[in-house]
Amino acid sequence: MIVEPKVKGFICITAHPEGCREHVRRQMEYVKSKKPKACARAKKVLVIGASTGYGLASRICAAFGYGAATLGISFEKEASGKRTATPGYYNTKALEQYAKEAGLYAASINGDAFSDAVKAETIEKIRADFGQVDMVVYSLAAPRRTDRDGTVYTSVLKTTGSDYTNKTLDLQKNEIAQVTIPAANKEEELATVKVMGGQDWAEWIRQLAAAGVLAENAVTLAYSYIGPEITHPIYFNGTIGAAKKDVERTAKQLREEFSALGLKAYVSVNKGLVTQASSAIPIVPLYMCMLYKVMKEKGLHEGCIEQMARLFLERLVQDEVLVDDEGRIRMDDYEMREDVQEAVKAAWDAVTTENLAQYADIDGYFEDFYHMFGFRYENVDYTKDVEI
Ligand code: NAI
Fold this sequence. Notes:
The chain has about 400 residues and is of the alpha/beta class. It has helices spanning about 15-30, 55-65, 85-100, 115-130, 185-195, 200-210, 240-255, 285-295, 305-315, 340-350, 355-360, 360-370, and strands at about 5-10, 10, 45-50, 70-75, 105-110, 135-140, 145, 150-155, 165-170, 175-180, 215-225, 265-270, 330. The model has no long low-confidence stretch (mean pLDDT about 95).
């Protein structure tokens, strides 16, 4: 059928199979152009949350940067009737095909990463096909988690303490509006930590280690965000920030718990980018449009693949991985540069609906947004019938 974008709120409910393939192909070509170095630490890589955003870019770097065999876990929907599959489904198929063409092993499991069943299936697959994994990337961004006892925890994107009002971007009308973000109650904050905190990451590592499928001196990574003060009430000091602080505590805990195995557990603080997960956060898209504008003007802009290529091919290959005082890898170094943040802050104070284009890279935002769903690639013929 002919597939067109259908945008509802902050997501697109259709995805283009050929466009998603192009999305993966461009990222793969970028990584190949970086003259990858072989990395002795990562030849067999498990990526949890591997189908979109940072997880997909990580998998592409592992496969086409390190030449690693990859096993990817994600939770995506297949096509049914006239409904297209989700982008992550098409991305995963494309990645597997490109890996196969390159002579690389790539297998994927589609299911709920929080469940014991998927963890057990993953362990079986590793045993049968790999023996052991030497890198585990945890890049889940999930709205909810069903626990072992059947309790469903839902993450919320709220501030903590008291309600918070600031500017936001109404992406449907392209207007600056005011938004008030309600403060979460304790239960909502704890639920967000349960979903987006470090507990499930730790469970993965414990189960992999207990099954003997985690290699000695393996590396494990989880991703976080800090951002500037403008976004602190909604991010760093919000419910999601509480979860990220828990992820940081987990990294320290994992390093201690598995020191005998030589496990290196890192949190990488990445740049704010348009992904399915981040488009859902109020205030953040406006900040991102301004950040894109400033960083593009300064020649510093990076997308998921540029960020992950720098992480995998420049940082992780060092004998001594560069970390900050808290033990975190800082891939947000360009975003947090003083001159960048000063320019964004000035733009933030000045922006109105009337001068939006002067301060915010709305086109860049939408380009990334549509690309995520496989649309607006100039070399894909969207008038052609495609098999969904
Ligand atoms: P995303 O929405 O693009 O990717 C989420 C991935 O998780 C997908 O592969 C999806 O299939 C998978 N997933 C979701 N629920 C699942 C489940 N129950 N079982 C198995 N797989 C499941 O998100 P994004 O933005 O790439 O986020 C990944 C990580 O990076 C998150 O920890 C996020 O907080 C972090 N991060 C994101 C930044 C951003 O600006 N987008 C900035 C810095 C960190």
